[in-house]
């Protein structure tokens, strides 16, 4: 019997094929029972795996399991305590979420506060399947209200340098490697589980920077920030940040999280580890942008940093308290290296310097500043413009790090400025960050200072072929010495030694010796050149300033100021006398002048000593030889007083008026030697206030001079023509004496001496002038000699200074009669007779003065303050001809 054939399909004996069950579509075979069991098994696995993941996750969360494992894992990885102050929860879902309340991460020992990191809540979405392979994969980690403190301690050590705890020796790990794109904790297990982190999101966060050495603190708002892992395992961070009122956008790419944890632990300060963490980040906002590309290890950065801003207003928000001038198109590029930044380049398109009062506009740019590193010399080049004057400049500066530390000096410094007909150079050494110890040579050459000033919109005098040089020395307490100061031009030559101290109240002291100064040869400054502007007429071929018809339009005429009422017109202007500005400067100066030419007059041996401290000025002496004698002044002012005060005294015993008046720009026509002295004091803030409170005296004395008749007519033409209708109109007239002395008290100047005597007439006067009210109260007795007979017509001068009134004295008739009788008595050569004495006394009573007061010698003595001086020569004997005089003489003899 043959052996049966073995089954071929799992044990079914051979035989005819089975028929499909009824109801199946034709051509479809029934599913074998064994295959149906496979589907059931697969479905069970699919359902069991989540349950198993949840079970595994529940085991991890059971009791305080996860809390202890997370706290121990972070503590082991960083070397610092990490705690969860709140409960640990689980939200069941397809991707379950673990909730950690109140995480706290300890700060470095000696920090400003206990925690380096805190948060309100941390939510972690955990994948289930990786749990079966002992991997804790956190797909999304959300941190709510985090606060991160980054600080350096008193020794400069950062709190982000961690020291992980040493792990015990373990057997080789046979677990599968993390999937590509996953980050890990650096291989440290959490009870046999490797932790992988894929995405982190921060909400309503804040980062704080604190420097314990300087006390500086900065805050960075993090309203929304996301960190996730790219497909190649690198991290990318995107979000919004806020800093000092600026809203910024952040986009950064870096290495893996495990690489970051490894890199931040570092090895030694200043030495990168073998695992540098790459980073490529950009931070941008309105008008400002920063880019960083490089690597990070420990607290050491390496890479390239670029920062740009469209103007300094953006940077002013980032760096408060830094006084930056208005600038445009700013850019900073540098390489970050362990030893500090290298390949530094700073550029600016235009920098506008602050404008002072009515000074010109000054701008710099473009500017380029470069340095290999902070320990190397700095090179700077650029352009500048003062008004319409373009300049080029170049500077080689000391190393910033060395200057800041103050060690390793002195350091060389070079600066050169060139322009049209201008060359300036400054070269020498610096000893430290301040001016003390500096030693530099300064030289300046300008072909035509006046033309340069016109282009620079500066009122500069017309010095030609100007050469100036000095040796600058930095001294203690901020002083800068200008030694061997020299200035030479076609019109001037001077030397000296000065010291300057910049500051809120600048100071200057030293000496200046002027060998020669020709003011007559120095033309005045030129007005700024008109800017060339293209208007519509120029664009259409019309001339500048012409209308469509080719005619030059007439400039609008400014309306005339309204006329003041006659009674309100003032002669003394209400101009400010800014003595309070004396407090803005401290000075001790001595000036000597060998030869000064001004007004076609040579002045020699000038001397001035000036002291200014605390708003108090004393200039004593102010003296110079010229115009026939020496003129000496003394000026004292109290700018800090309320109101300010001014005292002026002067003495010029012998001044040649013919030379002095034209030199001062005053009308000529007067000759003779004038003896002048004054001692005046006043208080006030304006010229009118000072005149109203004037005190002191003024004295003028002149003997044997001459005056142009035209000048007499201009000063007192009406009075002269009244007394001398037939007097000459041309030529000059001899002045036997001029005596004037005014004594002022509280703004009222009273005449103590007032006499003008010529060959044909004289004017004797008395009275006062109220400078505060600007009112006149004078009595004048003009006397004219006609044919040997004296005729006197008393005159009263009163009214306002702006509109004086001239009228005859009501007692004029009696005075005139007495004058005639006195003159006749004198012509009898009997001035000491009874009649003459009586008439002289009567005249003195009428005029308020005795005849002795009308004498030139006596009046000159009073004008000089009691000093003796030149007196006029005796008058020539009069030619006594017959006529009216003989008739009167005959009548008197009866």
SSE blueprint:
Layout: H1 33-61, H2 65-78, E1 82-84, E2 88-91, E3 97-101, E4 103-106, E5 115-118, E6 121-126, H3 129-132, E7 135-144, E8 147-152, E9 183-184, E10 194-197, E11 199-211, E12 217-229, E13 235-243, E14 246-254, H4 257-265, E15 277-285, E16 288-297, E17 300-311, H5 312-318, E18 327-336, E19 342-352, E20 362-373, E21 378-386, E22 389-397, H6 400-405, E23 411-419, E24 422-430, E25 439-448, H7 449-456, E26 464-474, E27 480-488, E28 492-501, E29 507-518, H8 536-539, E30 586-598, E31 601-613, E32 616-626, E33 629-638, E34 645-656, H9 657-663, E35 670-671, E36 673-683, H10 687-692, E37 695-708, H11 709-723, E38 732-745, E39 748-758, E40 761-770, E41 775-786, E42 789-792, E43 795-800, E44 803-808, H12 812-827, H13 834-847, H14 856-863, H15 884-893
Parallel strand pairs: 7-10, 7-11, 8-11, 29-30
Antiparallel strand pairs: 1-4, 2-3, 3-6, 4-5, 5-8, 6-7, 9-10, 11-12, 12-13, 13-14, 14-15, 15-16, 16-17, 17-18, 18-19, 19-20, 20-21, 21-22, 22-23, 23-24, 24-25, 25-26, 26-27, 27-28, 28-29, 30-31, 31-32, 32-33, 33-34, 34-36, 35-37, 36-37, 37-38, 38-39, 39-40, 40-41, 41-42, 41-43, 43-44
Helix pairs in contact: 12-13
